[in-house]
Task: inverse folding
């Protein structure tokens, strides 16, 4: 690009035109006045946001100036030279070049230098011959560059592996353009074993063919050694050997890991030793609790059985007392009725006595009347006798009268005889009535005494009934209390059996924990033997329902096994 002395563009060649045309759209976003159609004839100020600065530089320019500018996301290398004739400045010539590739190469070179400072780098031909290597690689494997240049990569691997199909396939993959990334074990100078975390990267030429193979690697020997030692230590821990101790020092970056592992193993050993001692005490205490709980369960069951029998007996006694109270009440009612009947019978007897007295008085009156009748009969007999005597004196005239007198005398005799018999009957009746009156009087007295006795019996029955009711009420309360005691005792028996079951389960878990502790080797002090005490079996139907919790030793064992079985991390450990 050529400008006149006023910085107007008077010429551009096709190379510059093509370069600017390709990025015209990006340049316009930052340089609104830029236009390829009118670039010839435009002032170079269209390329500058602050033209005064560039004009000041060009005014004093006496020799070519190199510069790199960035416009619209693109970088350009510029060489500006003044066109002079004597002391006169006739214009400027500007050479344009795309700086992207140059800057990118600089960036790549700087990146490679940065990578080379921290990683081991070696280059191989596609056939595997060493082209070059950096200091990190030479230091890691102990060689000088002249000792490995031109040698085959197989010098860094075991002979058996170098002749194996896997090794041939390794290079076949690289020649096919497929990188190989993994952790490799390599052999250094003098048989030194080195572990590297590396990537073998095929580098292609402009035709797309593999021109060489570049390996970027990080020496992870110390890390692998530390991991292997820690792994072996974890295996020992998983096997229960808590007296493990890693004595060989690690690299400084990993030494804290060894120290922490040894401290953890020591603390775990001390902890499990204390746990072992505690287990022995817990085992003895648990078995004593189990035995005591079993004895208590047995006694509680006996007490529950006795209370159950007592409750049943009290139920029966309560029923009997209730029945007796009912019968007593009925007897009291019967006695009351008998008392009323006795009083009524006494009154009837008194009335009978009065009636008998009246009968006796009537009999006496009848006897008196019969006496009068007897006397009348006697007088009539005398009169009839006299009439017969007089009739006899009268002779024939008195025969009829004599017959009548005879009849009257016979009637009088018969009346006298009848009166005599009636009197005799009356006398007998009076005697019997007297006896009856006496008996009725005695009956009345007896009924009065019976009434008194019935009243006494009624009073006693009333007291018995009241006492029976109170006794029934008391027995009902006692029965309720005993039933409640029976239920509580049954519940206590169940709880005791559950406690016993829990004790047996705890004893079993203690045995399991003892078995787990016995798997560990605690150095000079091994796990103390379990002190077994006989434990009674858990009663049927009273098994503990809770699931035993995994012991700390079992959890530790699982964690150690999990750590040993875990896949190794794929990340590099340089910063570890």
Result:
């Amino acid at each position: 690009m050529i400008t006149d002395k006023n910085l107007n563009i008077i010429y551009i060649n096709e190379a510059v035109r093509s370069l600017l045309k390709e990025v015209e759209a990006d340049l316009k976003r930052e340089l609104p006045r830029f236009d390829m159609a009118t670039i010839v004839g435009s002032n170079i100020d269209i390329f500058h946001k602050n033209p005064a600065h560039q004009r000041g530089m060009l005014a004093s320019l006496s020799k070519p100036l190199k510069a790199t500018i960035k416009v619209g996301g693109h970088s350009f290398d510029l060489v500006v030279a003044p066109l002079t004739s004597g002391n006169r400045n006739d214009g400027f010539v500007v050479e344009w070049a795309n700086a992207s590739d140059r800057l990118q190469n600089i960036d790549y070179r700087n990146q490679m230098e940065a990578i080379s400072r921290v990683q081991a780098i070696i280059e191989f031909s596609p056939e595997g011959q060493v082209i070059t290597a950096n200091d990190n690689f030479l230091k890691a494997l102990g060689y000088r560059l002249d000792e490995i240049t031109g040698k085959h990569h197989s010098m860094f691997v075991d002979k058996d592996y170098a002749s194996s199909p896997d090794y041939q396939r390794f290079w076949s993959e690289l020649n096919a353009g497929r990188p190989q990334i993994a952790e490799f074990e390599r052999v250094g100078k003098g048989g030194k074993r080195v572990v590297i975390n590396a990537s073998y990267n095929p580098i292609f030429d402009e035709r797309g063919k593999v021109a060489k193979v570049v390996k970027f690697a990080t020496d992870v020997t110390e890390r692998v050694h530390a991991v292997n030692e820690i792994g072996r230590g974890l295996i020992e821990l998983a096997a229960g050997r808590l007296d493990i101790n890693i004595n060989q020092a690690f690299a400084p970056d990993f030494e804290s890991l060894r120290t922490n592992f040894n401290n953890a193993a020591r603390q775990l050993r001390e902890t499990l030793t204390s746990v072992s001692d505690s287990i022995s005490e817990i085992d003895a205490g648990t078995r004593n609790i189990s035995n005591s709980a079993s004895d208590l369960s047995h006694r509680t069951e006996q007490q529950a059985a006795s209370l159950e029998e007592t409750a049943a007996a009290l139920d029966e006694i309560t029923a009997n007392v209730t029945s007796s109270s009912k019968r007593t009440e009925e007897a009291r009612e019967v006695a009351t009725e008998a008392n009323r009947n006795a009083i009524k019978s006494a009154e009837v007897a008194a009335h009978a006595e009065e009636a008998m007295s009246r009968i006796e008085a009537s009999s006496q009156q009848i006897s008196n009347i019969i006496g009068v009748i007897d006397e009348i009969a006697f007088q009539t007999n005398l009169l009839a006798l006299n009439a017969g005597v007089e009739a006899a004196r009268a002779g024939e005239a008195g025969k009829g009268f004599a017959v009548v007198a005879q009849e009257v005398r016979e009637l009088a005799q018969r009346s006298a005889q009848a009166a005599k018999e009636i009197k005799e009957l009356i006398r007998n009746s009076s005697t019997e009535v007297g006896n009856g009156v006496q008996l009725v009087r005695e009956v009345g007295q007896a009924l009065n005494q019976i009434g008194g006795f019935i009243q006494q019996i009624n009073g006693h029955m009333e007291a018995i009934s009241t006492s029976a009711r109170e006794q029934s009420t008391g027995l009902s309360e006692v029965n309720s209390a005993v039933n409640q005691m029976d239920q509580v005792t049954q519940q206590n028996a169940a709880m005791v059996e559950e406690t016993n079951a829990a004790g047996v389960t705890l004893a079993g878990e203690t045995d399991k924990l003892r078995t787990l502790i016995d798997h560990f080797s605690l150095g000079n002090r091994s796990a103390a033997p379990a002190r077994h005490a006989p434990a009674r079996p858990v009663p049927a139907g009273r098994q503990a329902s809770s699931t035993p919790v995994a012991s700390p030793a079992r959890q530790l064992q699982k964690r150690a096994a999990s750590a040993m079985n875990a896949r190794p991390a794929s990340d590099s450990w340089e910063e570890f």
About this structure: The first strand starts at residue 2 and ends at 4.
